[in-house]
Amino acid sequence: MKSLAYAAVFASALAASVTSFAQSPAPANRAQVRDELVQLEKAGYEPTQNDPTYPSNLRAAENRVVANKVAAAAGASGYGATMSGSSRSGAPATPAGAQ
Predict the structure, then answer these.
(1) Which of 38, 46, 56, 78 has its CA 20 to 30 A from that of 62?
(2) Count of CB atoms situated within 10 Å of the CB of 48
(3) Taking 70 as the threshold, does the pLDDT of residue 15 lie above it?
(4) What angle separates helix 30-42 from helix 54-77, to the nearest 10 degrees?
């Protein structure tokens, strides 16, 4: 019984120490919120419009903002954006003269 009490005390102390390291993100200030809203409006989102598809339009604008950031980062890094397409893995090779 004594070892069970020790185990419970140890587990609670361990849980308390782990949760003390958890950090929540800092709240955004007014300028950051304004910048995000401007980016969403440039991506085609209209916050003043009474729209029944509100969540989907907002998510689509957020996805466009993220895609623009990824494209800008890819252009700055020199690696380029990801390419879409397909490959023909496993297809037999055709001889050069047979085309």
Answers:
(1) 78
(2) 6
(3) no
(4) 90
